[in-house]
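[PROTEIN RECORD]
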Amino acid sequence: MKSLMGISVVAMTLAVALTACTKTEKEIVYQYPPKDVLESFSTATCAKKNCVKIAKSSLNKTFLLMISGKSIDTTPQWMDLKPSVVIFQQSGAQVGLFAVSTEAIYGNEDAKNLIQSFDVIADDADSVTFDWGAGITSLRTQGTFDTEIDMGDDDGTNGSSLQILNSFVKSVSISKDLIEVSQISKILQTKLISKKDNPFDPKDEGKPKIDVTESTLNINVQFYPYSKNPNFTPKAADKSRTVGFFVTKIATPEVADEKQIFITKWDFSAPKGPVRFLVSANTPKEYLESVREGLLYWNKVFGFEAVRVETGVDDSSVPPLHAVMVRWIPWEDAGFAYAQAQNDPLTGEMLRGQLFLTPAFAHTKGYVKKLTPVINPLVACDLTKSYNKGDFLPSNPDELRIAQDDVRSVVAHEAGHALGLRHNFAASASVSLTQKGVLKAVSDYLHDANNDSVMTGTTVMDYLKGTEDILLGKYIKNHPLPYDQMAMKWAYSQGVDGLNPAVSKYCSDEDLIISQGRDNVTIFDCQQGDATGSTLTSLINNHLRNRQSMLQTKYDAILASLFPEDQEVYTGNLDIILNENHTELGLKDLKAYLEMQKNHAGFVSLDKWKNVIQRGLKSDADPALDQMLKDDLAEVGTFADAKNLLTPVSSSWTTTDLQMVLDSIAKGQGTIKGRTYQLTADQQARLNQYFKDEAAYVETELQKQLNDLFVGL
């Protein structure tokens, strides 16, 4: 995901062994149903009941339960729940729906977890009819994606459920392939929110509060006859952690606290063939080809047709098996795309998935200017995603091209999740490209629409900075990336060979969570949004770029406080606003970096993290970090060179920026964040004097702070 997904609601799952591991191998006899098992089901006619009739020969046979939900609110969201292997079992006047545990597959009838029970309406020697009632009444809260590292989450056999308050069953249908139930359910949802004491105070960050609300979900419930796919070979996860896939964890028979861990992957063999990626019909035509190219990127990686794209698809229902629905969500202020996937809980075979894309990734108005290299030719161009790629959709061909390249990168990333791959936040630290190389690539990119771009990371599964992400989005139009190729080649091979750490470093979400949470350190070469090449060069470039419009940024912030967008008739107190603080000089990140260069405090290399800290060893030495910091500085030169780059060439360096602000003040009117404003003559006079004073302040204060920054270096 380009971002981690929001709250997922998940059905009950289980951990079931595929092979015996005792000294004498057992023959594992799965309680599989016959191929025509669904012919023994029917929707019986019952007065005022939702009835299902099942042949008794089909009781205690395995089915795969798959549940998907769609919220009913202003911005509907889909939620796929983790599949479970289940059985129907009768006892007297009830039919129970059970999630089958490991022992049950081997014949232990007591080792089952109850999902819910149904009242029997009719019973004879051959069949039993039960009332489906209000449908599924409990939803598991376990994540759909599982990882090798135990983060203390639910293990799948225990855990909490989401409370369903009431349901309306719309339909119950049975075909030769599946049983399908459609229901609308009211759920009780508990979540942690931030509650502000004063919602109008921009400095009020809020306090954590438990919020309990009622929500409505459209829930689709499907039962498929379950048996192991004979054409699919499970693949054990990579213990060396050279590559990272989502996994399914399978309990080992007769061995407590031991699990087999299989990666999630697809079956590309006949008759299934390529995975169908179904692109929703509402996808904007200007981005449709980029979406298609982002999906088909993976065929370059695999070297064969693993992905087949279909466009113009009706996305009103859940995706079919062996398919991934690609939904364009018209949610303008959303800041993320994400993916979901459902897999066989016993083998790891991926069954279906969904990608969710929003217009947020296409907001590139004004981005050409932000991509353009800064004046100093030594400093590599960079652009962090904090720019949010503009507030509006592209307004010219260059901005549209940038948006299309970024969409291609985002889609390839999310499709990677749907194909089983996890994040790899070390991709930008695994290429030889420097920030100077990025600068040249940006210049070439802006001046030549046919330029091939450069490889800013070894995989699309990283979170790259804005510039690097766009360059990579253009690069993957014609080229596969080495980590992606290595990971997929290994995943679909029969052996354990093919992994080479020299191709790319690897680290993922749990590395960031554990290192920063438990050990209070940052892994230097495993960060989200870090620069390709020299971090110092990137930080200098960011500062120089932001400094060019420092006063304008402050003026925009003052206007936003003076004329808040959420209150059309309210005008803030200018005295209070002007007394708040001085203009931000933007040296915070540079200060943190230089402190790290002085004593390395709070940072470690990925090598030390994996081979020392994670193994419970202790050592003050970190030669890998020493070398990386040395190389990082070398791209700039020396600390004296860095200071020279940061020092303004003129003591009156704010002149251009100040004049633009004074011109805006003189104009006296405009629009800020959607609200039209008109300055009074008094406000104009006070703002005019404030910014003249502020320009003098920042010119003096910046030099003072720069001198302090480089003391001792």
Notes: Residues 3-29, 102-108, 153-159, 372-393 have pLDDT under 50 and may be disordered. The chain has three domains: 37-227, 275-507, 534-709. The longest strand covers residues 207-225.
